């Protein structure tokens, strides 16, 4: 069902690797809906925290044996590039809320170097997390045949201060992450 939604929206997805940033018309018409999750510090995180700010969203789980370590390293690069800019945040959604408790997310955040107030590692109701993944045009679901029992892609989704998706990037690729960082800088200049 998630894959069907993504295939249906395939023409709207702007996956960026080593290309110049471009806003897609489809993204200007769609907005990320309201959400309510809990971060690694036990604090409620809602869309209000991100309104008027750009953020990079992604989906992960703390015991991921495949792509998550590379993604975490690239999120550190993003965090470092905008460490002193309160207009750029990171929002990482756990797709394993049964295992990824608040203390586990906090420990993971400390291990990877997530800064409080800059990088939110969130958990919540599984169905709500999977539903919002669809709004970001990404795959996130349980799959007992997959390594780690979950299937998710390694996308970083750039969302502007008005909740519009501005681009989707390969979060496992350093080059794509550098393009994302440059695109954020370009948007900040506008």
TrEMBL record:
<keyword id="KW-1015">Disulfide bond</keyword>
<feature type="binding site">
    <location>
        <position position="152"/>
    </location>
    <ligand>
        <name>Cu cation</name>
    </ligand>
</feature>
<dbReference type="InterPro" id="IPR003782">
    <property type="entry name" value="SCO1/SenC"/>
</dbReference>
<dbReference type="InterPro" id="IPR036249">
    <property type="entry name" value="Thioredoxin-like_sf"/>
</dbReference>
<keyword id="KW-0479">Metal-binding</keyword>
<comment type="similarity">
    <text>Belongs to the SCO1/2 family.</text>
</comment>
<feature type="binding site">
    <location>
        <position position="68"/>
    </location>
    <ligand>
        <name>Cu cation</name>
    </ligand>
</feature>
<feature type="disulfide bond" description="Redox-active">
    <location>
        <begin position="64"/>
        <end position="68"/>
    </location>
</feature>
<feature type="binding site">
    <location>
        <position position="64"/>
    </location>
    <ligand>
        <name>Cu cation</name>
    </ligand>
</feature>
<keyword id="KW-0186">Copper</keyword>
<protein>
    <submittedName>
        <fullName>SCO family protein</fullName>
    </submittedName>
</protein>
<dbReference type="GO" id="GO:0046872">
    <property type="term" value="F:metal ion binding"/>
</dbReference>
<dbReference type="Pfam" id="PF02630">
    <property type="entry name" value="SCO1-SenC"/>
</dbReference>
